[in-house]
Amino acid sequence: MPDESDPKTEIKSSAYTDDFPDTRWSVILTARSDSDDAGDALDQWCRSYWKPINAYVKARGVNDPDETTQAFFVHMLEKKGAGLPDNTKGKLRAYLMRSVKHFITDQWRKQNAQKRGSNAEHVGIEFGHDIDENHEQEPDKQFERRWALNLMERAMQRLEHEMAHSGKGLHFKYMKTMLSGGEDPKLRQEAIETLGMTSSNFRIALYRVRKRYRHLLEDEIMQTVTTREEFEDELNYFMSLWS
Amino acid sequence: MPNETCDICGNEIPSDSLNCPHCTFSAFFAGDQAEDSLNIPGFEILDVIGEGGFGLVYQAEQTEPVHRSVAMKVLKMEAMAKATRSRFAEEVQTLALLEHPGIARIYESGETDEGLPFYVMELVQGLTLMEWIQQKKPTLAQRLIVFQKICDAVEHAHIRGVIHRDLKPTNILINNEDSLPKVIDFGVARVFEGPVSVGREVTLDVQLMGTPEFMSPEQLAGEANIDIRSDVYSLGCILYSMLSTKSLFRETLQKAHSWKDKLDAIDEFAPPSLSSFTPDGIYGRTERNRLKELDWLAWKAIAKKRDDRYQTVSELNLDLTRFLSNQPISAGPPSWIYRTRKFLSRNLAAVITLSMVMVTLLGTTITTYILALKAVAPKEKTVQELNQEFNKNRQLSRYINNLHEVASIESLDHARTLMEFELNDQAGERLDRAVTFYSKNQDVGMAAAAFNAWHRKQYDLKPADPNILFTVEDHILSSDGKTRFDLDGVQFHFTGFWDPSEHPASEWIDELMTQIKLWQDSNDERISEIISSRHNGSTLFLTKSGDLYFITPSTPAQNIDQHVSAAGFTINSSATGIAYLKEHKQISIFDLETGEKCTVIDAPADIATIYLSDNNKHLTAVTPDQTLYVYECLEATLSPKVIRHTAANDGKSTGDLLFSFSRFGSVIATAHTNDSKIKFWNSMTGEPHGPPIDIEGQIEQLKFSRSSFYLYTAQKRTQLNEPVSFLNIWSMQYRHKIAESPDFKGIITDLELSKKDSAAGIRTSENKTAVWPFLQISK
């Protein structure tokens, strides 16, 4: 059993498990094949991105946003990656954003066509506001913020999983709110006392957990981009979303 | 639920996120600083031992020039704005001058390969202040005594012009060995001082320093003129924590979400009495009653207005001493009852005895009371006076640390005068005081110089040149350890830094002098050079006929070599190794500490002069055609690295090649008197190291500062057909000029730097000597 008070005890890195589905571009590409595995992987993949897509749909003021989100993913599963360019350079975030925008626009057109007949005049009524691109800043931002938070959550879940497996579940419970640098002194004191650590050992342990969390987060982001430059662009972009 | 604001960056934290996204992503740009990625020559990084607002702290082993365990703080990139970084090294140099048992020493600073600034400090093995209190559960008096020692340390720094600015319990460690407190991170907060502004910038700066719980209102408000009273305030908060085991402001601050709310909450905060704030069970009834008497003291320390606080730490400390010795404290309400009660509690036995005689009792009580009042009345100083004193001390502290210790030395000019006075009957006593003064203040170069003058007086020695009372080596900075005085007409090189606090002169100087005189009496030869180790008096001397002898204070001279050239006789500045040249071909390195010859090198060409680096690692041989052969002493059998600094007009006229090694010998700077460039070389590879520096005029002197952060050059130019010279300081990091001296008539013939980069001194061909505190030469 690992020593709870020893900050040198390394957090064991777990391999990818079913708990944390692969989110890479390659999943979409393999989804083009007809195998069952490919279908399952795509299904898991869609679930991973539910929250940001749903945030976008809600911000667009679509009636029944959950159903529309669901419809979007059904559409993606049916498409099985069709329409994806062979050259997959670029950010997954941008690809999904484009896809959901097209999907909503298509949906909107279909609904209008059904209501007014194929020759009816183009007037938007079913959406909370016009779908004019100029007014899409807020939904875009909602999508992107949620996207970034989604990555943070996924990294956090993996960290929790790893720490629980290495007997440091209690460490995680105390440290999970301290990962970005801030520390509630009262909670910190409680953690030191409960975990039976000295202040300096706690600091070291926290340093290592933060480092591991950054590593996992980096891994999550790297799955959605194709180059190191894009990774750094993403970091800068995410920072700008909250400043 | 409204979104919260991040305490660190001030940005919004979404209600469904546990952490601040902005800080999470910006952490990637802070640099991983993993211990395995740190590569700092001379240090072996062992482990992370802490993480604070400024950066990570590692335990490390310093491997050269001394082997010791140290703590190394590597500052986060994000915490270092560009402008701040350039100030960092300079500030650390000042902090390195602080020496007090209650202050963790800062040894040196630098930058990692990735450009992250770091500094190296004394490793303190122990608990933080509050951990110590929680574990040891000291009595009230024990807590106060430890607090007084903390005050002593802070006061020591204040006298030297350094304000801590971030005093808090986690910056105070209790040493495991002696249970005494050590204050860490002294003055580091100053490095991060940015331009004063309001709003978020202040929030960022302040938050960077850590928790606001122990910061004075003026610091929190971002005021520019922070003075020593901010530290008094922080000490007051620490006193509350030490006595009550609780943080005074924590609960209040936790309730406030925004930064503005926190400021308002502190502004409206009414400090509770210590006895009501302290939980039950910590003290017995007597101690708890006494705690009430400390309320006035604590309240005065944490008064919101600076003018209402103790004006110095020593005032606060004095009141604690009064409290501990049952005298009335100055912070108490000036009531007659209070003071009388204190008097009675202090003199209870006497009062009972004297009460037998009523008249005497009355007279004695009144008299003693009046005397007591007089004795404790604090000497009031205006804030203006204090600030003037503080600023004056801060300025002078860069050169002379504590002016109070030697009453006769009141300023830098006065110190110079002292060093230049004629030797007279009182000289010995005054120089003795100067030696004590400088050695206490760690300016070993000055101590050696003062000692040298004192010693000359002791042995009734005459200076080499009767027209010059002191040469630059004698009386100013002697950083290379070659202070000279005359011994029966022979140049005597008193080598190494003589540090009186380590090695009292009486231990071996007299014995050594006796041995040398005995040898002279029984031999007919003349001595041309003498070099002594500063540690044990082991000495080499060279005769005019080229015979080399080894002698110690307790053993007679032994001949160890012949045909040694006086021109090729060199010693490193730490006086632990000597190299000498035989017949222009063979170079030997001699370990002065052990008295053994350790290396012999057969040079590939005729050699004119040789030079040994400070750490004995590199030996440079210079040929008459001014090629440098750089040897690694331990690998002397391998081929040397060959460095040729080709001057722009090389071949047209002769000139001199100048060179200097960096502290650890890894970089060599070269310059040529016929060239306008200073070039840098990697001594391991012989390859160029970074861009050259373009200089103005003709270079005459070239020296790395002791820390190797700076390069000093002396240059000359012609003005109205007369040569004038000047001194420049260059930043090695940015390769640009950071200071320039006024012009001097003539040529700068000597340039000496003090051991700790605290001062630079020159001597000119016009026999003018001048000395400046570090980086002050443009003034």
UniProtKB/TrEMBL annotation, chain A:
Superkingdom of source: Bacteria
Gene3D superfamilies: 1.10.1740.10
Entry protein name: Sigma-70 family RNA polymerase sigma factor
UniProt source species: Persicirhabdus sediminis
Upper lineage: Bacteria, Pseudomonadati, Verrucomicrobiota, Verrucomicrobiia, Verrucomicrobiales
UniProtKB/TrEMBL annotation, chain B:
Residue ranges of every copy of the Protein kinase domain listed in the record: 43-324
An example molecular function term from Gene Ontology annotations: ATP binding
Chain ranges passing through the membrane: 348-372
Keywords on record: ATP-binding, Kinase, Membrane, Nucleotide-binding, Transferase, Transmembrane, Transmembrane helix
Annotated organism of origin: Persicirhabdus sediminis
Keyword Transmembrane helix (UniProt): yes
Name listed for the protein in its UniProt record: Protein kinase
Keyword Oxidoreductase: no
SMART domains (alphabetical): S_TKc
Database matches in PROSITE patterns: PROTEIN_KINASE_ATP, PROTEIN_KINASE_DOM, PROTEIN_KINASE_ST
Residue positions binding ATP: K73
Pfam families linked to this entry: Pkinase (PF00069)
Superkingdom, natural source: Bacteria
InterPro entries: Kinase-like_dom_sf, Prot_kinase_dom, Protein_kinase_ATP_BS, Ser/Thr_kinase_AS, WD40/YVTN_repeat-like_dom_sf, WD40_repeat_dom_sf
SUPFAM superfamilies: Protein kinase-like (PK-like), WD40 repeat-like
Top-level taxonomy: Bacteria, Pseudomonadati, Verrucomicrobiota, Verrucomicrobiia, Verrucomicrobiales
